[in-house]
Amino acid sequence: MSEQERFISPDEVRHVARLARLALDDDEVGRMALQLSAILEHVDAVRRLDTADVPPTAHPFPVENVLRSDTETPSLDRETVLSQAPLAENDRFRVPRIMGEAP
Amino acid sequence: MASPAPEFASLAEIAASVRSGGISARALLSQSLGRIRELEGDLHCFNEVTVEVAEADADAVDRMVRSGQDPGPLAGVPVALKDNLCTEGIPTTCSSRILAGWLPPYDATVVSRLRGAGALLVGKTNLDEFAMGSSTENSAFGPTRNPWDTGRVPGGSSGGSAAAVAAGIVPLAFGSDTGGSIRQPAALCGIVGVKPTYGVVSRYGLIAFASSLDQIGPFATTVADAALGLEVVAGHDPMDSTSLERPAPSLLASLAEGVSGLRVGIVEDFLSDGSECGAAVVAAGEALAIAGAKVDQVTIPELLLGLPAYYVIAPAEASSNLSRYDGVRYGLRVDGPDTETMNARTRGEGFGPEVKRRIMMGTYALSAGYYDAYYGQAQKARTVVIRAFEAAYRNFDVLLTPTTPSVAFPFGSKTEDPIEMYMCDLCSIPSSLAGHPAVSVPFALSPERLPIGVQVLAPALGEAVMMRVAASLEAAAPREARGPVTP
Amino acid sequence: MTGYPVNNYETVVGLEVHCELATATKLFCGCRNAFGDEPNTNICPVCLGLPGSLPVINRRAVELALRIGAALNCSPRRSIFHRKNYFYPDMPKDYQISQYDEPINVNGWLELPDGSRVGIERAHMEEDTGKTTHVGGGGRIHEAGYSLVDYNRAGVPLVEIVSRPDIRSAAQARAYVDELRSILVATGASDGRMEEGSLRVDANISVRPLGATEYGTRCEVKNLNSLRSLERAIDYEVQRQIALLESGERVAQETRHFDEGDSTTHAMRSKEEANDYRYFPEPDLTPLVPDAALLAAAAEGIGPMPAERRRRLSGVLGEDSELATRRDGSTDQVVTVVDLGLDELVEGAVAAGADPRLALARAANEAAANPEEARRLDPRAFAALIKMESSGQLSATQSKEVLSELMSQGGDPSQIASRLGYEQMDPAVLASMVDEVIAAHPQEWRRYCDGDEKVAQFLLGQVMRASKGRANGKLVAAAFASRRGSF
Q1: Over the stretch C88-117, which tens digit does the pLDDT of each residue have?
Q2: Which residue in A70, B339, B415, C3 has the fewest CB atoms around it within 10 Å?
Q3: What ipTM goes with this model?
Q4: B13 in contact with C, Cβ within 8 Å
Q5: C68, C189 contact by CB (below 8 A)
């Protein structure tokens, strides 16, 4: 267990799960630590690659300036959209109280 | 063991027949629905069979024919769509609990184009949840079974679409391919599957997995049919900024031109000793040489970097693309005393284990302190792969590899170790990273009579030459190596 | 306007201003960009972040962003969009498409009316979020029972303007936002309505001992809904930080919320760790290159900026271009006139021969009462009126009356003056009135001739009464003076 854990610990897993808003129980955290460690070990080749003169590729093709004109197009029907909402009230989406402030 | 099923007429023949009034769209639909009734219980290709929609589509086509209008190049063709393509008013779930029952208020561009061409939407097919997987075992709604051997997987993530074509239910289906999710199931199911050049087919309405890699492509029993399917959906879409500003490629016209003088490179790095899939590639090379191509071996070791780079980039983009599933606006909500808890519980219960693993992996790879080491490096590794391809294509027109290292495997045989499953994508990932097109062509049967596919790779926008080579391989392959089959 | 040291500390402020762009549609989709519409009526798959949706950049937003950059003396550059990943219910995708380390505008400055400069680090593009309203509980959001979200504002284009920490006082901060607002309105990029939220300000505030070169720890203060709140927040925060430092404690780096009720700031209840935004380049969008077409469209139709207009007006007035504080207040008048768009009126009047200082004063003080009407004034008519006043034909009071009428009705100033009964009296009639008063009040006349100035007012008043207010005070005084001289 300890050999593979060296890539990511259960505490780190909990931290990442918080960032990702994923509720994991303790069993899941433990399993995830092992599995992620295995994956991280597997992708380590990438981390160790010598990329001194190599730029990153964000897009396969160097296209630029794809833009659209500032003209209005039809919006969705509100009822259709709200009908898919888990909970709606007063024509808005309703959520339980929000603990943190917006960044 | 599976037995060969009657071949479909070609899509072109079907459409011609419908347009001329020789056969009605309704009649064709009946055949499909009949086959579904027969086989769907065993195979579970579909999350949703859309009978009423298909009947309405068929009636519309037949009405147009009667009134002298042209319904389009796919008139009356029954089509199945992977359930990560948005279909207005029809449940689109990505085989996930978190989207169970979600009705999109719009159609994907590809869907509009298909129905505009006269195709009949027969159903939404099963997939690995959010397209993450190589066996369709990650579906929240149960796996799809391979028509060639129902104890084995059909491949993934587009397993449902592949199985639907391989079982003779529909002559044309569509899936999505991020690291091999069209090609690998095509190989495991003995049919043709195409991943186009990145940007050739619009992604608008394709529920995103990894944005810089995802592409939509066709499944069919023949190269010609796959080519026609691709022609209908491809071409610039202003709703997708990554869509190339080009019309759909013209493929059918040059399909029969043969391979005389073409330079074909067999990528040694993907041939492991004694594997049946590797042997098929060597045989394919010989067949092409007989047909007039100049065939050589080539080594491109950088391509082996593809797998680890992909398993950083794809989860990273996915972790961001899947953030929107938070229980607020649509889909599953698991309640909590506050929004943060509600989000976490919804995602904890709504996502399956593979999806969670990839979200976690991706979040980690992008997180503070790790970005440069993982995501940053992986995007550079991507450049290395692209440059390696560029060098190879100076000397070759197309490359040959196995589509995937193994034939269809039994359920549960690769689910213990995620890495083992990831290895299925070894040969398909590099072209995804480069944005290049690729096609899997059924070429041989294994000793256990399971289909083996050979992959043809071409440089960006090289679909025409790629499909020419594929057609040549198809002509040389034994009939028994391809579907449709009856389980 | 230098910052005044408070207890031997220097105030250091940097401001982040978010400006909503006045485009017709949102940044990445064609939904209407409008304030005050019914909730959730301007939404579509893209701005709602529905599965499968993709963003496409609004060209006009790019032009306006470049325009703002130019007005702030920034350098435009090749830029890309990044994803800023965090969870919040007003964020449809749970990531914001923004710009990170490759923004569209960098390294500019803003010149304040007093001539001081504040550096602009960057002015980048990003999309706005939806709006949450909190229901139940107390005023703070985490006391609310629940919240409701409206996504009309989600996807509205923003430019975020980040100043360098060059501001040294609350007054200077206010002047910065005022001037920035004028500039944004002058470029046409924004309607500048803070009360509608089209302009939002966050302040980064720190203090350091006078003479120190290192910056102190800064706090970010949010919820500044007016210029007054901005000033009060800075005042409070500076006091708070100084008090901490003076008592030997350290200032914690944190985000604080400004409470309008008692003009204080308090720390926001934040989660355990700070946000890790996991920025990575947006794969669904292409880079932006400010090519000739974009730069030309950005430059089109903007007039000179407020600072330039103030300089020009001062030059026309014959002031030197150093806008240092003047005793006669002309600097404030210049600022007011430019702010209200009346500089062309004044310049036109001066060109037609009007006295510069008087034209400026009447424009800044009287015409300013109704800027819209004033902007429609014909500069030549205005000049004629000013000439009538400076030659003594009209008193100040009369001039203001005529101006008011000129503004609301238009027409010719001398005709208006005539209609109002302000026309010049016949000099012979005036002379005879003066003589009559002298004859009627010999003792007062003797005292005036002996040098008693106070009695001059009495004599003047007698003529005014006899003429029923129509006599021109200056001419009457001159008449008395000349009679005294010849006595």
Answers
A1: 999 999 999 999 999 999 999 999 988 899
A2: B415
A3: 0.96
A4: no
A5: yes
